[in-house]
Amino acid sequence: MTKILNLTLLLILVIHLWLGTTFELSHDEAYYWLYSKHLSWGFFDHPPVVGVLIKLFSFLPKSEGSVRAGFIILQSLTAVLLLKLVPQKRQLIAMILFFAFPLASLAGLFALPDMPLLFMTCLYCAILKRYLENEDTISIIGLSSVIAMLLYSKYHGILLVFFTLLAVPSLLKKKSFYAIAILSILLFLPHVIWQYDHNFSTLRYHFLERPKVDFSLKRLLEYSLAQVFLAGLFVGPVIWWSILKTKQKSDYQRVLKFICIGTFIFFLVSTFSKKFEANWTIFLTIPLIILSL
């Protein structure tokens, strides 16, 4: 990255740290702040990373800014890592796109699970690229760790793994894949045990207890348009079109395309009977930008 990019990212970080102190916590942020006061391997409707990240900065004077500090810093780290995943001559465009995505830009200002998920998605894309090119010990351990952290951040992370396997089914023939699967499960086991001890309350809530609604064509249309324009009010349609029409030149690009399109379809189907939330697909920010460039 050039010095200009570094200085720009630093300036954005400083501005966001200041902005994070200027408005009160939302109801959701206050709810997750309570997580940090009673840390556990799981909570009723979300895994624990959001509470842990708030706790890490609890040494700062109590304020809205201290609650949000970790998420703001994580946003900057995500941007830095993303720039390393695109060609150097296109890093400026990548940074502009990242902060042009409304959810990616705003997520860092709030203490919500979305920012940890976005960062882990970026890390997943980086380590997966290395693994597909070179199945060394570092990439195997790294991929195992980041898969576990994806799930500890937000359950939506499982979609990244699922569509990776769907895009490159030959991974099922590799011994290293099973090593990654076993290690990921072991790292995520404390949360599974927590779920067992609490009668799988989170799974029951998300799959059985959340209110259902009647099928609505209008809701499907709203979801589809939202996903397009959440990639940027003016550039969103161009980004999605470029991804749909471009042929993949590698397994890595094929995986990213499957993640984008597969996730879109997955949540489209879910809107048949449930209301959708725009932040469900925030992690698509990373593969969309990488592929579009």
Structural features, described:
This protein has 293 residues and is an all-alpha fold. The longest helix has 23 residues, at 175-197. It has helices spanning 3-19, 27-37, 49-56, 64-84, 91-100, 102-107, 114-133, 137-153, 158-167, 175-197, 201-209, 217-229, 236-245, 251-270, 285-292. Helix content is 69%, strand content 0%.
Task: Give the arrangement of secondary structure elements.
Blueprint: H1 3-19, H2 27-37, H3 49-56, H4 64-84, H5 91-100, H6 102-107, H7 114-133, H8 137-153, H9 158-167, H10 175-197, H11 201-209, H12 217-229, H13 236-245, H14 251-270, H15 285-292
Helix pairs in contact: 1-4, 2-3, 3-4, 4-5, 4-7, 7-8, 8-10, 9-14, 13-15, 14-15
Find the count of extended strands (DSSP E, 2+ residues): 0
Q: Please state roughly what percent of the residues sit in beta strands, choosing from under 5%, 5-15%, 15-25%, 25-35%, 35-45% or over 45%.
A: under 5%
Number of helices: 15
Which percent range fits the helix content? 55-70%
- Nearest-integer average pLDDT: 92
Name the structural class: mainly alpha
Compute the CA-based radius of gyration: 19 Å
Query: What is the string of helix and strand elements?
Result: HHHHHHHHHHHHHHH
- Overall body shape: globular
List low-pLDDT spans. none
Q: Major sheet, described briefly?
A: none
Distance between the termini: 16 Å
